[in-house]
Amino acid sequence: MAAKGAETLKSSVEQFTTAGNQAFKDGIEKSLSALGEVNAHSKKNLEAVVASATAATKGAEALGAQAMAYSKKVLEDQAAAAKSLTSAKSVQEVVELQTAYAKSALECYVAEMNKASETVAASVKECFQPINERFTAFVERFQTAP
């Protein structure tokens, strides 16, 4: 009888040990899988930040190029206006030339500011697109989580 009890105890301990080992192994595998998933998400998040920074840099470059082109145009227009003012034959003609130049300069400025606003808006949209995509993926992941 003692042998049978020892055999039953041995069998129970082996079952308990096997079940414990399997549970530990399953837990480790789930943890490693979750860690791998977190690493994949972190990599994608970092890629989104890099893409966002790249888009911001491109937007800043485009805005800088527009500002330089506008500055060059303004200087050329000012030089042409000054030249035309020096060739004026009367005070009336000077006033007319100055008024025409002021109107033209203001229209050019307003057009340039509209163009700059469009560039900034497009740049901001491009900057936030990768981050927005990652946020959407994050929300979808947690909505489908068990």
Structure description:
Helix content is 95%, strand content 0%. The protein is an all-alpha fold. The relative contact order is 0.10.
Query: Considering DSSP H and I runs of 4 or more, what fraction of the residues is helical?
Result: over 70%
Spans where pLDDT lies below 50 across 5 or more residues: none
Mean pLDDT: 88
Series of H and E elements: HH
State the distance separating the first and last CA atoms.
49 Å
Name the shape in a single word: rod-shaped
Put simply, the count of helices is 2
Structural class comes to: mainly alpha
- Strand fraction: under 5%
Gyration radius from CA atoms, angstroms: 36 Å
- Main β-sheet, in a few words? none
Oligomer: single chain
Number of structural units classed as domains? 1
Strand runs, count: 0
Q: Could you provide a short overview of the structure?
A:
The protein is mainly α. It has helices at 2-86, 91-143. It is rod-shaped.
